[in-house]
Specification:
It holds the Pfam family GNAT_acetyltran. This protein is α+β, with helices and mostly antiparallel strands. It is built from 9 helices and 12 strands. Strands 1-2-3-4-12-5-11 form a 7-stranded mixed β-sheet. Strands 6-7-8-9-10 form a 5-stranded mixed β-sheet, sandwiched between helices.
Length: 247
């Protein structure tokens, strides 16, 4: 494993650095050991020199559906750009430290609509997250709720009556940090619910002495992170299999 880690020694991506440190995920290499693919949750990180045959073998065996593909290697970026079955989009990276302002976080937490309730994720709500497409990723890279708890996972749901309309959760848990995921039911977007959840997650993370890492999937997520006090490092390219949009 240590030899395989050398493929990523110069990478800056928080998810890669923290994931390898915590020995999470799987690393695949080609026969010549000139190329590697690091699979972590639903993320895939190609490193080393681009190897089209290696890529094709992995794609055929493991599939690309629902995977987010990110590389810091120029040869892999050029290769991924050439793949007609992939859709390129922009994500945003944030620093793994921040000086969060307690007053700002309190303001966002108190902006919860009067008819909406905030609850910690428990076994029942964790199970319910799998039932709708907008929320299933919030279960994170865990086999079940017991695994989620044992690994140090936590989060919150927002409920309108009995209905979960938004949630935040730990997609991955590292040493001293967690990767957070936020999602809002499409019909309830644009109400500031992500900021409420983000603030609650930051406060809870501080209580647990872990840092809540944020990596924004889109412009809306970027704006939420900045409003909560995260430091933007910059935009970067990411890829998804086009077939994911047809499922």
């Amino acid at each position: 494993m240590n030899k395989k880690h050398t493929f990523f020694h110069s990478w800056s991506k928080n998810m890669v650095r923290y994931g390898l440190q915590a020995d999470l995920g799987q690393i695949f290499t080609n026969t010549a050991e000139t190329s590697a693919l690091y699979q972590l949750g639903n993320f895939l990180f190609p490193a080393g020199q681009a190897d089209p045959e290696f890529w094709q073998n992995y794609s055929s065996q493991s599939g690309l559906a629902d995977k987010i593909i990110i590389s810091e290697e120029p040869s892999w970026q050029q290769f991924l750009d050439s793949q007609s079955q992939l859709h390129q989009f922009t994500r945003y990276a944030f620093a793994d430290r921040a000086d969060f302002d307690a007053e700002t976080l309190g303001k966002w937490q108190s902006s919860l609509p009067a008819d909406v309730q905030l609850y910690p994720i428990e076994e029942n709500s964790y199970t319910l997250l799998a039932e709708e497409s907008w929320s299933h990723d919030l279960q994170g890279d865990f086999t079940d709720f017991a695994h989620f708890q044992a690994a140090g996972g936590f989060g919150f749901v927002l409920c309108l009556g009995e209905e979960i309309i938004a949630a935040v959760s730990t997609g991955l848990t590292y040493h001293g940090a967690v990767e957070i995921e936020i999602a809002t039911k499409p019909a309830c977007q644009g109400q500031g619910l992500a900021k409420v959840l983000g603030a609650a997650m930051i406060v809870e993370s501080q209580k647990r002495s872990v840092f809540p890492l944020w990596d924004a999937h889109n412009e809306a997520s970027k704006k939420v992170a900045q409003s909560l006090g995260y430091q933007l490092l910059g935009a970067y390219r990411a890829y998804e299999w086009k077939g994911s949009f047809d499922q």
